[in-house]
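User: Hi! I'm working on a homework problem where we have to compare a predicted structure to a textbook description. Could you give me the structure for the chain below?
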Amino acid sequence: MAEYTPKERLSRALTGQPVDRMPAVSVTQTGTVEQMEACGSFWPEANNDAEKMAALAEAGYTVVGFEAVRVPFDITAEAEFFGCQIKAGTKEQQPSVVGHVVKTVEDIEKLKGYDLDHGRIGVVCEAIKILTDKYGDELPIMGSMIGPFSLAQHINGDDWFMAIFTDEAFGLTLMEFTTEFNVAYAKKMVENGADTMVIIDPTASAQLIGAEFYDKFVVPYHRKIVDAMHKLNVPVVLHVCGDTTQGLMLMESSGVDAISVDQNVDIATAVGKVDKAVIVGNLDPVNVLWNKDPDTIREQSQKVLDAGVGLLAPGCGIVSKTPTANLQAMVEMAKNHKY
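Assistant: Happy to help. Predicted C-alpha coordinates:
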Protein backbone atom coordinates (compact mmCIF):
# COMPACT_ATOMS: atom_id res chain seq x y z
CA MET A 1 0.00 0.00 0.00
CA ALA A 2 1.18 3.52 -0.78
CA GLU A 3 2.56 5.66 2.02
CA TYR A 4 0.48 8.79 2.45
CA THR A 5 1.27 12.25 3.72
CA PRO A 6 -0.37 13.12 7.05
CA LYS A 7 -2.84 15.33 5.19
CA GLU A 8 -3.81 12.54 2.78
CA ARG A 9 -3.87 9.92 5.52
CA LEU A 10 -6.31 11.74 7.79
CA SER A 11 -8.60 12.72 4.93
CA ARG A 12 -8.74 9.14 3.72
CA ALA A 13 -9.24 7.72 7.21
CA LEU A 14 -12.13 10.08 7.94
CA THR A 15 -13.86 9.29 4.68
CA GLY A 16 -13.58 5.52 4.87
CA GLN A 17 -10.78 5.01 2.37
CA PRO A 18 -7.85 2.60 2.88
CA VAL A 19 -4.72 4.00 4.51
CA ASP A 20 -1.25 2.64 5.22
CA ARG A 21 -1.62 3.14 8.99
CA MET A 22 -3.57 5.04 11.61
CA PRO A 23 -3.17 8.84 11.68
CA ALA A 24 -1.80 10.23 14.95
CA VAL A 25 -4.00 13.19 15.85
CA SER A 26 -6.04 14.81 18.57
CA VAL A 27 -9.40 16.20 17.46
CA THR A 28 -9.82 17.94 20.84
CA GLN A 29 -7.70 20.75 22.27
CA THR A 30 -3.94 20.13 22.19
CA GLY A 31 -2.27 22.87 24.26
CA THR A 32 -0.15 21.96 27.30
CA VAL A 33 2.17 23.86 29.61
CA GLU A 34 5.20 21.86 28.44
CA GLN A 35 4.43 22.79 24.85
CA MET A 36 4.01 26.43 25.89
CA GLU A 37 7.41 26.37 27.56
CA ALA A 38 8.99 24.72 24.51
CA CYS A 39 7.63 27.22 21.97
CA GLY A 40 7.44 30.35 24.14
CA SER A 41 3.73 30.89 23.51
CA PHE A 42 1.52 30.76 26.59
CA TRP A 43 -2.13 30.90 27.57
CA PRO A 44 -3.97 33.22 27.98
CA GLU A 45 -2.13 35.27 25.32
CA ALA A 46 -2.19 32.33 22.89
CA ASN A 47 -5.99 32.47 22.97
CA ASN A 48 -6.07 36.09 21.83
CA ASP A 49 -3.09 36.56 19.49
CA ALA A 50 -3.02 34.82 16.10
CA GLU A 51 0.76 34.43 15.92
CA LYS A 52 0.94 32.97 19.43
CA MET A 53 -2.07 30.75 18.80
CA ALA A 54 -0.45 29.37 15.66
CA ALA A 55 2.86 28.85 17.48
CA LEU A 56 1.24 26.80 20.24
CA ALA A 57 -0.81 24.81 17.74
CA GLU A 58 2.40 24.10 15.82
CA ALA A 59 3.98 22.74 19.01
CA GLY A 60 1.46 19.92 18.94
CA TYR A 61 3.30 18.79 15.80
CA THR A 62 6.89 19.81 16.50
CA VAL A 63 6.99 18.92 20.23
CA VAL A 64 4.43 16.13 20.71
CA GLY A 65 4.35 14.61 17.24
CA PHE A 66 0.66 14.97 16.36
CA GLU A 67 0.26 14.73 12.60
CA ALA A 68 -2.05 17.73 12.39
CA VAL A 69 -2.31 21.27 13.69
CA ARG A 70 -5.50 22.42 15.39
CA VAL A 71 -7.00 25.68 16.71
CA PRO A 72 -8.36 27.06 18.97
CA PHE A 73 -7.74 25.70 22.48
CA ASP A 74 -11.03 26.61 24.16
CA ILE A 75 -14.76 26.88 23.42
CA THR A 76 -15.55 30.41 24.63
CA ALA A 77 -14.52 32.54 21.64
CA GLU A 78 -17.96 32.27 20.05
CA ALA A 79 -19.85 33.34 23.18
CA GLU A 80 -17.39 36.19 23.74
CA PHE A 81 -17.95 37.27 20.13
CA PHE A 82 -21.62 37.80 20.92
CA GLY A 83 -20.93 39.75 24.10
CA CYS A 84 -21.10 37.10 26.81
CA GLN A 85 -19.03 37.77 29.92
CA ILE A 86 -15.92 35.59 30.03
CA LYS A 87 -13.82 34.62 33.03
CA ALA A 88 -10.25 35.00 31.83
CA GLY A 89 -8.10 31.92 31.66
CA THR A 90 -4.58 31.45 32.97
CA LYS A 91 -1.42 29.66 31.87
CA GLU A 92 -2.96 26.40 33.10
CA GLN A 93 -6.70 27.01 32.85
CA GLN A 94 -8.98 27.79 29.93
CA PRO A 95 -11.44 30.71 29.99
CA SER A 96 -15.09 30.08 30.82
CA VAL A 97 -18.46 31.73 30.12
CA VAL A 98 -19.97 33.41 33.19
CA GLY A 99 -22.49 35.88 31.73
CA HIS A 100 -25.16 35.56 29.06
CA VAL A 101 -26.85 37.93 26.61
CA VAL A 102 -30.11 36.42 25.33
CA LYS A 103 -33.45 36.03 27.08
CA THR A 104 -35.92 36.80 24.27
CA VAL A 105 -36.29 36.55 20.50
CA GLU A 106 -35.74 40.31 20.41
CA ASP A 107 -32.33 39.80 22.03
CA ILE A 108 -31.43 37.38 19.24
CA GLU A 109 -32.29 39.99 16.61
CA LYS A 110 -29.85 42.42 18.23
CA LEU A 111 -26.97 39.96 17.65
CA LYS A 112 -27.40 39.78 13.88
CA GLY A 113 -25.22 41.66 11.40
CA TYR A 114 -21.95 40.43 12.93
CA ASP A 115 -18.53 40.66 11.26
CA LEU A 116 -16.44 37.47 11.38
CA ASP A 117 -13.21 39.44 11.03
CA HIS A 118 -13.66 40.85 14.54
CA GLY A 119 -12.80 39.52 18.00
CA ARG A 120 -11.33 36.13 18.73
CA ILE A 121 -13.25 34.63 15.82
CA GLY A 122 -11.05 36.74 13.55
CA VAL A 123 -7.97 35.69 15.54
CA VAL A 124 -8.74 31.99 15.05
CA CYS A 125 -9.21 32.46 11.31
CA GLU A 126 -5.95 34.40 11.08
CA ALA A 127 -4.11 31.65 12.99
CA ILE A 128 -5.48 29.09 10.54
CA LYS A 129 -4.11 31.17 7.68
CA ILE A 130 -0.67 31.31 9.33
CA LEU A 131 -0.65 27.53 9.84
CA THR A 132 -1.91 26.88 6.32
CA ASP A 133 0.82 29.01 4.77
CA LYS A 134 3.43 27.00 6.68
CA TYR A 135 1.99 23.46 6.75
CA GLY A 136 -1.01 23.33 4.45
CA ASP A 137 0.68 21.15 1.84
CA GLU A 138 1.65 18.40 4.28
CA LEU A 139 -0.40 18.51 7.48
CA PRO A 140 -4.13 18.53 8.14
CA ILE A 141 -5.30 21.95 9.31
CA MET A 142 -8.10 21.41 11.83
CA GLY A 143 -10.58 24.15 12.54
CA SER A 144 -12.73 23.70 15.63
CA MET A 145 -15.77 25.48 17.03
CA ILE A 146 -18.39 25.04 19.70
CA GLY A 147 -21.52 23.47 18.28
CA PRO A 148 -24.84 25.32 17.92
CA PHE A 149 -26.64 23.70 20.85
CA SER A 150 -23.88 24.46 23.37
CA LEU A 151 -23.44 27.95 21.89
CA ALA A 152 -27.14 28.53 22.47
CA GLN A 153 -26.64 27.46 26.08
CA HIS A 154 -23.68 29.82 26.45
CA ILE A 155 -25.71 32.70 25.04
CA ASN A 156 -28.92 31.93 26.98
CA GLY A 157 -27.45 30.48 30.18
CA ASP A 158 -28.87 27.67 32.29
CA ASP A 159 -32.38 28.74 31.25
CA TRP A 160 -31.63 27.08 27.91
CA PHE A 161 -32.42 23.56 29.07
CA MET A 162 -35.83 24.65 30.34
CA ALA A 163 -36.44 26.76 27.25
CA ILE A 164 -36.29 23.85 24.82
CA PHE A 165 -38.99 22.08 26.88
CA THR A 166 -41.27 25.04 27.54
CA ASP A 167 -40.77 27.51 24.66
CA GLU A 168 -40.14 25.61 21.46
CA ALA A 169 -40.46 28.67 19.21
CA PHE A 170 -37.75 30.52 21.12
CA GLY A 171 -35.53 27.45 21.26
CA LEU A 172 -35.75 26.79 17.53
CA THR A 173 -35.18 30.47 16.73
CA LEU A 174 -32.00 30.51 18.80
CA MET A 175 -30.84 27.25 17.19
CA GLU A 176 -31.39 28.71 13.72
CA PHE A 177 -29.32 31.74 14.71
CA THR A 178 -26.42 29.83 16.25
CA THR A 179 -26.35 27.36 13.35
CA GLU A 180 -26.30 30.14 10.78
CA PHE A 181 -23.31 31.55 12.64
CA ASN A 182 -21.62 28.13 12.84
CA VAL A 183 -21.96 27.62 9.09
CA ALA A 184 -20.57 31.07 8.31
CA TYR A 185 -17.70 30.63 10.77
CA ALA A 186 -16.83 27.17 9.44
CA LYS A 187 -16.81 28.48 5.88
CA LYS A 188 -14.51 31.33 6.96
CA MET A 189 -12.08 28.85 8.53
CA VAL A 190 -12.10 26.78 5.34
CA GLU A 191 -11.48 29.89 3.25
CA ASN A 192 -8.38 30.47 5.39
CA GLY A 193 -7.14 26.92 4.87
CA ALA A 194 -8.88 24.54 7.30
CA ASP A 195 -9.40 21.15 5.67
CA THR A 196 -10.98 19.31 8.62
CA MET A 197 -13.78 20.64 10.82
CA VAL A 198 -14.40 19.65 14.44
CA ILE A 199 -17.69 20.45 16.16
CA ILE A 200 -17.39 20.44 19.95
CA ASP A 201 -20.95 20.37 21.30
CA PRO A 202 -20.49 19.23 24.91
CA THR A 203 -24.05 19.67 26.18
CA ALA A 204 -25.78 18.38 23.04
CA SER A 205 -26.31 14.95 24.52
CA ALA A 206 -29.28 12.67 23.93
CA GLN A 207 -28.60 11.28 27.40
CA LEU A 208 -29.02 14.80 28.81
CA ILE A 209 -32.05 16.05 26.86
CA GLY A 210 -33.60 12.82 25.58
CA ALA A 211 -33.74 11.34 22.09
CA GLU A 212 -36.89 13.23 21.04
CA PHE A 213 -35.45 16.64 21.85
CA TYR A 214 -32.04 15.69 20.45
CA ASP A 215 -33.70 14.77 17.17
CA LYS A 216 -35.53 18.09 17.07
CA PHE A 217 -33.01 20.55 18.50
CA VAL A 218 -29.67 19.05 17.49
CA VAL A 219 -29.68 16.69 14.50
CA PRO A 220 -31.10 19.09 11.87
CA TYR A 221 -28.68 21.81 12.87
CA HIS A 222 -25.61 19.61 12.90
CA ARG A 223 -26.74 18.39 9.48
CA LYS A 224 -26.74 21.96 8.14
CA ILE A 225 -23.12 22.40 9.17
CA VAL A 226 -22.13 19.00 7.80
CA ASP A 227 -23.85 19.63 4.49
CA ALA A 228 -22.10 22.99 4.13
CA MET A 229 -18.72 21.40 4.84
CA HIS A 230 -19.27 18.42 2.55
CA LYS A 231 -20.02 20.81 -0.31
CA LEU A 232 -16.47 22.08 0.27
CA ASN A 233 -15.06 18.51 0.55
CA VAL A 234 -14.26 19.03 4.23
CA PRO A 235 -14.85 16.07 6.59
CA VAL A 236 -16.53 16.75 9.92
CA VAL A 237 -15.81 15.29 13.37
CA LEU A 238 -18.39 15.65 16.16
CA HIS A 239 -17.47 15.51 19.85
CA VAL A 240 -20.11 15.38 22.60
CA CYS A 241 -19.14 14.85 26.23
CA GLY A 242 -20.40 12.12 28.54
CA ASP A 243 -21.75 8.65 27.85
CA THR A 244 -23.16 9.09 24.34
CA THR A 245 -23.59 5.35 23.70
CA GLN A 246 -27.37 5.42 23.31
CA GLY A 247 -27.25 8.54 21.13
CA LEU A 248 -24.60 7.43 18.64
CA MET A 249 -27.04 6.49 15.90
CA LEU A 250 -28.78 9.86 16.24
CA MET A 251 -25.41 11.61 16.14
CA GLU A 252 -24.45 9.74 12.99
CA SER A 253 -27.77 10.63 11.35
CA SER A 254 -26.51 14.21 10.93
CA GLY A 255 -24.03 12.91 8.36
CA VAL A 256 -20.82 13.48 10.32
CA ASP A 257 -17.80 11.56 9.14
CA ALA A 258 -16.46 10.78 12.61
CA ILE A 259 -17.70 10.79 16.19
CA SER A 260 -15.31 11.50 19.06
CA VAL A 261 -16.35 9.69 22.24
CA ASP A 262 -15.12 10.21 25.77
CA GLN A 263 -13.83 7.71 28.29
CA ASN A 264 -17.33 6.80 29.51
CA VAL A 265 -18.09 5.05 26.21
CA ASP A 266 -17.11 1.46 25.47
CA ILE A 267 -15.32 1.56 22.13
CA ALA A 268 -16.41 -1.88 20.91
CA THR A 269 -20.03 -1.03 21.67
CA ALA A 270 -19.69 2.34 19.94
CA VAL A 271 -18.22 0.79 16.81
CA GLY A 272 -21.12 -1.65 16.69
CA LYS A 273 -23.73 1.10 16.94
CA VAL A 274 -22.68 3.18 13.92
CA ASP A 275 -22.90 2.41 10.24
CA LYS A 276 -20.16 4.42 8.56
CA ALA A 277 -18.93 7.02 11.07
CA VAL A 278 -15.35 6.63 12.29
CA ILE A 279 -15.18 6.30 16.08
CA VAL A 280 -12.48 8.50 17.63
CA GLY A 281 -11.17 8.24 21.19
CA ASN A 282 -11.05 7.59 23.99
CA LEU A 283 -8.13 7.62 26.42
CA ASP A 284 -9.14 9.25 29.69
CA PRO A 285 -7.48 12.71 29.61
CA VAL A 286 -7.27 12.94 33.41
CA ASN A 287 -6.92 9.46 34.92
CA VAL A 288 -4.75 8.08 32.12
CA LEU A 289 -3.04 10.70 29.94
CA TRP A 290 -2.31 13.17 32.75
CA ASN A 291 -1.83 10.94 35.78
CA LYS A 292 -0.23 7.74 34.47
CA ASP A 293 3.16 6.91 32.96
CA PRO A 294 4.06 6.23 29.30
CA ASP A 295 4.01 2.45 29.74
CA THR A 296 0.48 2.61 31.12
CA ILE A 297 -0.49 4.90 28.24
CA ARG A 298 0.75 2.27 25.81
CA GLU A 299 -1.19 -0.48 27.60
CA GLN A 300 -4.41 1.53 27.67
CA SER A 301 -3.91 2.60 24.05
CA GLN A 302 -3.58 -1.01 22.99
CA LYS A 303 -6.88 -1.86 24.68
CA VAL A 304 -8.62 0.93 22.78
CA LEU A 305 -6.98 -0.17 19.53
CA ASP A 306 -7.96 -3.79 20.12
CA ALA A 307 -11.56 -2.67 20.67
CA GLY A 308 -11.61 -1.37 17.10
CA VAL A 309 -11.32 2.39 17.44
CA GLY A 310 -10.97 4.23 14.14
CA LEU A 311 -8.65 6.93 15.45
CA LEU A 312 -6.80 6.69 18.76
CA ALA A 313 -7.14 10.00 20.59
CA PRO A 314 -7.94 11.61 23.95
CA GLY A 315 -11.50 11.20 25.15
CA CYS A 316 -11.81 14.96 25.65
CA GLY A 317 -9.59 18.04 25.67
CA ILE A 318 -6.02 17.40 26.82
CA VAL A 319 -5.34 18.63 30.37
CA SER A 320 -2.81 21.46 30.30
CA LYS A 321 -0.45 19.71 32.76
CA THR A 322 -0.27 16.50 30.74
CA PRO A 323 3.38 15.42 30.27
CA THR A 324 4.65 15.46 26.70
CA ALA A 325 6.07 11.95 27.16
CA ASN A 326 2.57 10.62 27.84
CA LEU A 327 1.15 12.19 24.70
CA GLN A 328 4.10 10.88 22.71
CA ALA A 329 3.35 7.35 23.95
CA MET A 330 -0.19 7.66 22.55
CA VAL A 331 1.16 9.06 19.26
CA GLU A 332 3.62 6.16 19.02
CA MET A 333 0.82 3.62 19.44
CA ALA A 334 -1.26 5.24 16.75
CA LYS A 335 1.61 5.44 14.29
CA ASN A 336 2.43 1.78 14.80
CA HIS A 337 -1.12 0.62 14.24
CA LYS A 338 -2.17 -0.75 10.87
CA TYR A 339 -5.86 -1.35 10.26
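For your comparison, note the following. The CA atoms of residues 102 and 156 lie 5 Å apart. The chain is about 50% helix and 10% strand. Good luck with the assignment!
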